[in-house]
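Weekly structure sync - notes
Attendees: PM, LS, DV (DV joined late)
Agenda: review two folding runs queued last week.

Item 1: First target. Sequence and structure tokens pasted below for the record.
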Amino acid sequence: MTVTQPAGANRAAQVVLRPARVSDMFLLMDLADQVGYCLNPEWIRTRLRAEPATEAHVVATLQDIPVGAAHVYLSPRQAPGSAVRASVTALAVDEDHRAERIGSRLLTRCEELARQMGAHTLEIVIPTRRHEDLHEFWHHHGYARDGSSPFVKVLGARP
């Protein structure tokens, strides 16, 4: 499903979010490199072919050029009857497009996808020590520290 916002003064409003494709592999590797991670191309290829009911990769494009990406997956239940949890394991915006609210759009889409997967909570499992400058970003979007995860948000019902 492709999500488009009407064009406006804000660049984030011009961003188109779409599912990632195998052809995005090198973009994903570049974005990971920009935030200090080294990804194996075969690992990316495998993840992009994962079951969409439990895992999703989202790419943000601006004028058909990929400028950001995120990954969300449904976490296995910790115990029978426990709340269903999803995790954001990656959220990166190209260094030339930061501070344009693209990360906010990607995070909102991850929340929507987590709800569609049946999750009640969404946790951020991106190493926070490496990216302490993002703590305010998580707080701004309603995430709070939790004993089991650096940042967690209880998701409301599907809109």
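Item 2: Second target, run right after the first with the same settings.
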Amino acid sequence: MRKQMMLLLVVMFALLSGLTACTKTNKGASGPAVLQGQSEHWKVVLEYTPQGNSLEETVTVQTSITEQTISEMTATINHKNQKPVSYQMIEPEMFKGGQPIKFPDKSAVADWKDTEQVEIEWKTGDRRYKEYISVANAAAAPAK
């Protein structure tokens, strides 16, 4: 009888431990971060700030193109297991003097670690161009 009681307690303890391990809350998104990347013509900064169970993605771009007028520009952020998110510059004439431009639109992403690359497409005159930029973690902010 004593062995059965001990066995029952061990089994119940194992079940309770297993259930506790399975029901730990998943934080969802990782903490805030800043990713940066650069290509021949573009510099990109992606800022991720916590918003509930996801991260808000803010995109800033800067170009080294100063002699030509950019008539169209789109930045597409590719994330693993998510649809690519595209940001279109409505007033590309703002790209004068190489000033950084922050897109007004923001999107929610699951985790900044899933960011694969940034695709920049633009048009000057009659020619279209495309560059791919790999981004790296510039500064992961401490979790609060």
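Discussion on item 2: The chain is about 15% helix and 45% strand.
Action: LS to circulate a short write-up before next sync.
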